[in-house]
Amino acid sequence: MKLKLGTMISSYSSNIKTASRPSNFPSSIRSVASSSSFVQQPPKSPNIISLKPPSSHGNSVSFQRRNLCIVSASKPDASYLQGGESFFRSALASMEAVYLSRNPTAKAVLELVQSARNDQICYDHIAFRTFGVNGHGIDSIASFFLDYGYTQREELRFPAKKLKALWFSPPNIPHPDDGSGFSGPLPRVFISELLVDQMSQQTQEIIRKYTEISGSGNKHAALASALGSLTWEKPLHSEFQQLARESEYAAWTLVNGYAVNHVTISVHQLQSHLNNIKSLNEFIEKSGFRLNSEGGFLKVSPDGLLLQSSTVADSIPFCFSDDVTESVPCSYIEFAERLVLLQYKDLPDSEVKEFHRRDGFEVGNADKIFESTSKEQLTRRAA
Fold it and tell me: Residue 381: its pLDDT value, please?
């Protein structure tokens, strides 16, 4: 499956180099990950995040304190993306291209799952991380999606991690029957932010330093994600270490910025034998990849209707501003199966639509999924 890059970056000429695969990358998969690209590679920009050591907020977002997201049993509304759909999908494809170029595990998994039955891949959701300070939080990336017809839904809180998140439902628009990835049904969007005011003074100063350097970069968060560029300068290695000691989420965001944190395969929409998450998890592990083990390999919501799992994040070499190079966590790929709501359990399979299934997100599941980029999981992956 191949997706077009957005025209928004077509004026640049060179390509981002694909991240070096880790030495423990499964040999049986190397040929897949090095084969023809899942999508075209995005071009460089002046502040591109290094893969190898180099020689308006628009619509405002209101927050409501809630612990769990609702389960939606209603049919989607008849709203439509108000123009610019081609541009919007191209922008998403560009974000995906950067994500795949940096994360060989995600690229290989997508190709393997697709090859099981020449399957179409539908995305359940796409996720981003942000700093909740100086306008660089959820609103900075959410405004792009709100402008193109998305609707704000529920808030989730993660007190131990000092995070909050919002998710956004997509407009219900027609899509090609053979559409795959971002050419198919539009995904949900999950955006989290670090509650910077709750961090130590030293950590706050570092984060505020770089968001202030960014200037108006928060207004161009979607563009930064599509270009694979930080909106602030590369940090000092010591600053990254300080953030990592206090919040691995903060350290990840400092070096990855608005890059896609993960995309999620909609498992129940697969047409192959992999269309239940237990079978898919077995397939992923047998193919040589490690799943996030935090809270168990399979994360299940209390109602039993939302099942999630994820791989462990890939790592890439990052050259800090003081010329120190260190491997830092990048992104991962998630899997989600949404089961049919109880009131629709007697519907024939052929009549079941997405709105008949469990909607929203779950704090307990998401809390464990966040750990996919943790040092503990990355170390376990390398073992």
Answer: 57
Coil vs helix vs strand at 93 = helix
How many Å apart are CA 382 and CA 259, to the nearest integer? Answer: 23
Does residue 77 carry a pLDDT above 50? Answer: no
Phi and psi of 282, rounded to 5°?
Answer: -60, -40
The pLDDT assigned to 172 comes to 85
pTM over 0.90: no
Q: Residue 329, SS3?
A: strand
Taking a C-beta distance cutoff of 8 angstroms, is the pair 62, 139 a contact?
Answer: no
Residue reference for tokens 């490690």: 290
**What are the tens digits of pLDDT across the range 119-131?**
889 999 999 999 9
Residue matched to tokens 């930064």: 224
Task: Let me know: does 43 contact 9? Beta carbons within 8 Å.
Answer: yes
Q: Half-sphere exposure of 163 toward its Cβ, with a 13 Å CA cutoff? A: 22
DSSP letters along 198-233, please?
GS-HHHHHHHHHHHHHHTTGGGGHHHHHHHTB-SSP
